[in-house]
Write a structure and sequence with these properties.
Layout (H helix, E strand, L loop, with lengths): L1 E4 L9 H10 L4 H11 L35 H22 L3 E5 L2 E5 L6 H17 L10 E2 L7 E2 L2 E2 L6 E2 L1 H17 L1 H7 L5 H16 L3 H17 L5
Antiparallel strand pairs: 1-3, 1-4, 2-3, 5-6, 6-7
Length: 239
């Protein structure tokens, strides 16, 4: 397995890229422009003076162009639409090399059941870097990892090296620490100790973690949720 990270993934996607997405969906030029403006954010570093370039507007030229903001509810779908050509390119390359290509946001993985050595891995990494660059993205080289067969295979925080996808021990431990902390020290005390902004944000965090866990290991999650809800019930809280 070879793991890659796209450096500043959302920040590399420009307003004009988002404009093209809406334009390709059949929106008028004006609506596409307005939607692209709404879904992007300008930064101080993006301010450029382009005076004298508007005698005839034939391209998408504006004084300030935005980039996709990380965390916005629209950025995930828009970034995937922009990165679709990259996905096709890397899928074709991976298939030809005997690998399976997977991407979620800025995390990319090439996985295979066949044997390959370090020299082959270096060649693949170099080619992936080149292909990524042709689509105006960049790899975060410090986050590129070659995972040997005997090591833990963790993708997007999940263990994938067995017969089924599993939660990592670290994730399970974090949930169990929260449950035990509330039981032994109290809801407010544990929430404050863990630096949560409010009791509601802490409760939502645990509930969200258990909901996520249930999609991966339902038996473990149901057991922990019953324990968690029982503790909250003893404190007069019901969910």
């Amino acid at each position: 397995m070879i793991k890659f990270d796209l450096h500043n993934f959302f920040g590399q996607i420009e307003e004009r890229d988002v404009y093209r997405v809406f334009d390709s969906c059949g929106y008028s030029a004006l609506v596409s422009f307005e939607l692209a403006r709404i879904c992007t954010r300008s930064r101080v570093a993006d301010f450029h003076s382009r005076s004298g370039r508007y005698s005839a507007i034939t391209t998408y030229d504006v004084d300030v162009t935005g980039r996709l903001p990380q965390g916005a509810p629209t950025s995930g779908a828009l970034s995937n639409a922009v990165a679709t050509p990259l996905d096709y390119t890397l899928h074709e390359f991976a298939t030809g090399a005997g690998f399976v290509y997977t991407r979620y946001s800025d995390d990319m993985v090439l996985s295979t059941c066949q044997d390959f050595n370090r020299a082959q891995a270096v060649t693949i990494i170099r080619e992936v870097s080149h292909l990524v660059a042709t689509h105006r993205f960049r790899l975060h080289r410090k986050k590129t990892r070659v995972i040997p067969p005997g090591a833990r295979h963790v993708v997007l925080g999940l263990l994938v090296d067995g017969g089924e996808v599993r939660l990592t021990p670290e994730f399970r431990r974090r949930v169990e620490v929260h449950i035990r902390g509330v039981r032994e020290f109290g809801l407010s005390e544990h929430s404050d100790h863990r630096k949560f902004r409010s009791l509601l944000s802490f409760i939502n965090h645990v509930e969200g973690s258990l909901a996520f866990a249930r999609s991966i290991q339902p038996a473990w999650a149901d057991e922990k949720r019953a324990e968690w809800r029982s503790i909250l019930g003893s404190l007069g809280l019901t969910l």
